[in-house]
């Protein structure tokens, strides 16, 4: 399994971000700056040993400003801007395309963009999430509030079902399991980071065929 990241992936991501309103772009720039300083400090001195006050000082902001951008210290690791982009790509898939195929097309586009634009950040965030118990706990809660909610919304739209449909709920959690299984395959050294788009696509194909083991 080997994937080379498309050279134009970063350009596509940048184009999507540049289409955001000016206010949103400014907020995103500040949020990324805070996150960059936080991840650097976590790497240098450890997650538990780093305080919000230290992150704020490094980013040249006040602690109160930190909490305007991130609800908790854990959120500075697990928060990113990709869910709205994922939803935009999914909704742009041709009418009549099934959910799995639309998801495969979405992840084939967005994952190379993420890796091309934020490879080091993605790696650091994934490792911290796997290693720090507080982050693993907050990730589960955040997934339900963020990525799970976005996926459930767009899947319900495409299938014409209500968002509280139990089958939609179950399918969405299964999909998150597919994504997490790929993450742990990388953490366990079974695949390279560049292989994740192919692995996730394979896992989604496995779901589509009913897991014929």
From TrEMBL:
Residues 51-70 bind DNA. Gene3D superfamilies: Homeodomain-like, Tetracycline Repressor, domain 2. One of its GO terms (molecular function) is DNA-binding transcription factor activity. Residues 28-88 form the HTH tetR-type domain. Keywords: DNA-binding, Transcription, Transcription regulation. The keyword NADP does not apply. Pfam families: TetR_C_14, TetR_N. PANTHER family: HTH-TYPE TRANSCRIPTIONAL REGULATOR BETI, HTH-TYPE TRANSCRIPTIONAL REGULATOR RUTR. This is TetR family transcriptional regulator.
């Amino acid at each position: 399994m080997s994937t080379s990241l498309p050279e134009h992936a970063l350009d596509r991501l940048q184009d999507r971000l540049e289409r955001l309103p000016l206010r949103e772009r400014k907020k995103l720039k500040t949020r990324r700056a805070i996150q960059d300083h936080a991840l650097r400090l976590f790497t240098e001195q450890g997650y538990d040993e780093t305080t919000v006050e230290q992150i704020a000082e490094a980013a040249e902001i006040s602690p109160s400003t930190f909490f305007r951008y991130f609800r908790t210290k854990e959120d500075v690791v697990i928060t990113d801007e990709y869910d709205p982009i994922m939803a935009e790509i999914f909704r742009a898939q041709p009418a009549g395309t099934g959910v799995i195929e639309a998801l495969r097309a979405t992840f084939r586009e967005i994952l190379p963009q993420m890796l091309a634009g934020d490879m080091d950040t993605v790696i650091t965030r994934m490792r911290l999430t796997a290693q720090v118990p507080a982050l693993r706990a907050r990730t589960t809660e955040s997934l339900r509030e963020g990525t799970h909610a976005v996926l459930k919304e767009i899947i319900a739209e495409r299938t014409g079902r209500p968002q509280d449909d139990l089958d939609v709920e179950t399918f969405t959690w299964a999909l998150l399991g597919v994504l997490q299984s790929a993450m742990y395959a990388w953490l366990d050294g079974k695949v390279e980071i560049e292989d994740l788009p192919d692995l996730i696509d394979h896992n989604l194909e496995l779901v589509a065929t009913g897991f014929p083991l």
